[in-house]
Amino acid sequence: MTTARAELLTRQLDLTWSLFEYYLRDLDDAACLWEPAPDCWTVRPDGRGGWAADWETTEPDPAPATSIGWLTWHIGYWWTTTLAHCFGPGAPAREEITWPGGADAAATWLRGLKDEWRAALLPLTDAELDSTDRTAGLPWGEETALVDVVSWVNFELAKNVAEIGLTQRFHVRAGAADR
Fold first, then answer.
1. 123 neighbors 157 (Cβ within 8 angstroms)
2. Cβ–Cβ < 8 Å for 42, 69
3. Mean pLDDT of all residues belonging to the chain
4. pLDDT above 90 coverage of the chain, percent
5. What are the two backbone dihedrals, phi and then psi, of residue 41, each rounded to the nearest 5 degrees?
């Protein structure tokens, strides 16, 4: 039996995800790798057949612009980490969470994370949502109730999806200007 709070949280997730699907339908590799500004953070071939994301432990101020590839990696990074800490044995190191190497692969990866997250949320009781047991291993969420972490995931996803939509719009306009 699903609780009203778990249903509300998954409805918020579904609403945000529907906007993401809107952007994903036109996303291609060129848009993922387009750099909207000099010195932006992006994803780059790592020389071993994979892709690594630009990263600094202390985020620069001001924060750099980001490519859509980096944003999709970032979503995958924080979602993998959060899922693994809250519903698994713990997360892999950041360097082990790599971008899958293209728009279609990134979309498939993120859809899988969303489906896994959604399925993990639906059976939660109010007591489980209010507990800190599942969040104890999070490097940034220790002593935070799971409901607050779930709310953060929904908010962070909405923010990242909005950034992807805006960057995609800039990419389209930049391409039109090049013609």
1. no
2. yes
3. 94
4. 87
5. -80, 135
